[in-house]
Design brief:
Order of helices and strands: EEEEEEEEEEEEHEEEHHEH
Number of strands: 16
Distance between the termini: 37 Å
Largest sheet: 5 strands, antiparallel
Strand order of the largest sheet: 1-6-12-8-9
Number of helices: 4
Structural class: alpha+beta
Radius of gyration: 19 Å
Length: 206
């Protein structure tokens, strides 16, 4: 039955009655503050998720009143209705339709490829890589330069969604913004960390 649960980040601990118990993984000397797993069964019987070792995370305050995300298709995400942290374990409910469960919606290299295509098509930007680090070169190099970094902590995908929104805003007003500004945008500054499902560190543990 364990093949029903596919863990992308985190480890399956147990499946009992209507509950799924997950263990956070180690990242260097610390415990990751993230999880993402897939339930490979439609209308499954599970109604609760327990993060057994949540209390080992160095960011324990992040569990308080936090509501993780679920999705039926991996594309559209919504927050769970409630959660509870007792200082050791973190609990939250899920619906039988929930297939993807995550600390925050993932943003991977596949998302970046779609972003590259959209930006190149709409803004005619240069997408470059230096020492394996991808970045966008937009606008007028003679103007003030804005340097934007995202994903220094690779598991904090919020910043990548921010970059998406910023590029969309530039696309809505390209004549003004690109003539009067110069942008260097690094959408995945910790690229190897993202590729290896790290949460806060590089693959070298920095």
């Amino acid at each position: 039955m364990t093949n029903i649960i596919e863990c992308i980040t985190g480890q399956l601990n147990s499946m009992q009655n209507d509950s799924i118990a997950i263990e956070l993984e180690q990242e260097g000397r610390v415990t990751k503050h993230s999880f993402h797993f897939l339930i490979n069964q439609a209308n499954h019987p599970y109604r609760h998720v327990i993060i057994n070792n949540a209390g080992r995370s160095p960011y324990q305050a992040g569990w308080q009143d936090y509501r993780p995300f679920t999705s039926t298709d991996g594309q559209t995400w919504s927050r769970v209705t409630a959660s509870h942290y007792d200082g050791t374990t973190f609990h939250f409910p899920i619906s039988p339709e929930s297939r993807h469960i995550a600390w925050y919606p993932p943003y991977t290299e596949k998302h970046l490829l779609r972003q590259q295509h959209t930006v190149h098509l709409n803004l005619n930007s240069q997408f470059l890589q230096q020492s394996g680090l991808p970045y966008y070169h937009l606008g007028n190099p003679k103007q003030h330069c804005w340097v934007i970094l995202a994903r220094q902590h690779p598991g904090e995908t919020q910043s990548s969604f921010f970059i998406d929104g910023m590029l969309e805003a530039i696309n809505h007003h390209p004549a003004v913004l690109l003539q009067q500004n110069h942008f260097l945008i690094f959408p995945l500054v910790n690229y190897q960390g993202v590729a290896n499902n790290q949460h806060r560190l590089t693959i070298d543990g920095v």
